[in-house]
Amino acid sequence: MRLPILCFSGKETIIVYACDCSTEALERTKEVIDAAMVISVKHRFRLFCCDFSTNGFPKWLTCNSCKESIPQEQRAFLSDVKNNGNIVTELTSSTEADCCISGVDFVTLIFTLSAVPLHRMSKAIAECFSVLKPGGLLLFRDYGLYDMTMLRFEPSQKVGYREYIRSDGTHSYFFSLDSTRDLFVGAGFIEQELEYCCIKSVNRRNRKSMRRVWIHGKFQKPI
Predict the structure, then answer these.
(1) CB 202: neighbour CB atoms within 10 A?
(2) How far apart are the C-alpha atoms of 160 and 158, rounded to whole Å?
(3) What is the pLDDT of residue 215?
(4) Which residue, 124, 119, 135, is CA-closest to 189?
(5) What are the residues whose beta carbons fall under 8 Å from the beta carbon of 222, sequence distance 6 or more?
(6) What are 88-117's pLDDT values in tens digits?
(7) Nearest partner of 141 among 80, 189, 86, 190, judged by Cα
(8) What's the rounded Cα separation, in Å, for the pair 165 and 119?
(9) What is the pLDDT of residues 55-72, one digit of tens each?
(10) Which residues 6+ apart lie within 8 Å of 99 measured at CB?
């Protein structure tokens, strides 16, 4: 997900900030970027460790204390490109990048929120809302109700309404359109797109069909 944004977005000024609560996951991601052998993207990819559902995002993502000292022509402008937790921004000032970034243009939550315990989801979404610039977009995709993964869980693994615990101890939640809408609209977002993505794929090796149900959404922070 991160590499295509950097390589094929058509905007060489885009910077991707990727966060995860696992340093191991961040290291693996860095290895993928380094192995791509695309020198032009490496300096535009920034990693940081963070569990934004508990501690929130670092303040430098939204800090604007140095904005007044930056000449008007050097300030960052909202990108006109409508591009698992990635944060995407476009900067035109290296001075600003060294101090703060004053918010981001896009946030992606791709199969991320379902791993957050249900009682912390509202905080996680509120944090995403807080780091977006006015007019910025949050792009969401995650597991939908009755996805094949949900049907495979044993009754003993169910810990709440549509919420399960995997064998490794991580959470897994399955969204409906209404529950997704309530979470994001409740945080202040404007719904632009929200739909189920139903996909049937076949494992060529064992010829088993897999029926996937995902939720796709696009939400905007009011201007």
Answers:
(1) 10
(2) 6
(3) 97
(4) 135
(5) 134, 135, 188, 190
(6) 654 433 334 445 778 999 999 999 999 999
(7) 86
(8) 14
(9) 999 988 887 554 433 333
(10) 60, 63, 65, 66
pLDDT at 97: 43
pLDDT tens-place string over residues 184-201? 999 999 999 999 999 988
Closest residue by Cα to residue 10 from 112, 73, 79? 79
Q: Measured between alpha carbons, how far is 23 from 30 in angstroms, rounded to an integer?
A: 10
In single-letter form, the type of residue at position 166 comes to R
Cα 37 to chain centroid, rounded: 24
DSSP characters for 113-173?
GGGS-HHHHHHHHHHHHHHEEEEEEEEEEEEBTT-HHHHHS-GGGEEETTEEE-TTS-EEE
Mean pLDDT of 190-218: 92
Task: Determine the 3-state secondary structure of 107 from DSSP.
Answer: strand
Look over the chain and give the mean of its residue pLDDT values, rounded to a whole number: 82
The pair of structure tokens assigned to 45 is: 């990819």
| Residues 202 and 169 sit within 8 Å (Cβ to Cβ) | no
Domains along the chain with CATH numbers: 2-220 (3.40.50.150)
Residue type, 45: F
Read off the tokens for 196. 């189920």
